[in-house]
Each structure stands twice: as structure tokens, then as C-alpha cells.
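Why do we care about 3D structure at all? Because function follows from shape, and shape follows, mostly, from sequence. That is the central idea of this module. The next example makes it concrete: a single protein chain, its amino acid sequence, and then its structure expressed as C-alpha cells.
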Amino acid sequence: MPVWDVFSKRGKPLPDTYFYNSLPEALRNQVLRIWGRTFDKYNIGPKYEHIKEIVCSEHGLMHLSGMPDAGADVVQCLLICQDVPLVLDVLAAR
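And the structure:
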């Protein structure tokens, strides 16, 4: 089983200019639009399953946001989740 390099497990000190206790709504929306253009254009729907599997496995979760569909679960997590390291893991999963 591979070991994934997720944000919450890196534990590196960060410069003072970065804030990891909140993610702006505009950033979340921009990421979602970029995903929509790339995932849909190149038919990468299974990518949502892959992201969900990695992040749920690393955090010991069954769902990211409680949605049954992997795509909806990942998108809802990105849009509404207040657990910033979890959302950053969703963004970093590949």
C-alpha cells in the first residue's frame, strides 16, 4: 500500500506570511471551477473517487462531507468543510 504525501502529515514549519486556519471562499470557488474545466474536459470523473479514497484513508473517515457520491462528497468538502488541513489534503491528493 502506498504512503501518500498529504499536507497534514508533513509537519514542516511555515513562513509567517501563510495562514492555514481558514481558506477564502473565493479560493475554494476558483479551485472548483478549475476542477470542473479539467476533470470534465478530459473525462476524469474517477479522479474524485481517487481523491476521496486517499483522504478518507489517511484521516480514518468513511466520507468527507457525508454525501454518498464521491464527486459530490469531494466538492462539498472543498466548499464547506472548516477543517483546513483536511481540505488542503483534498487539494494535494493526486
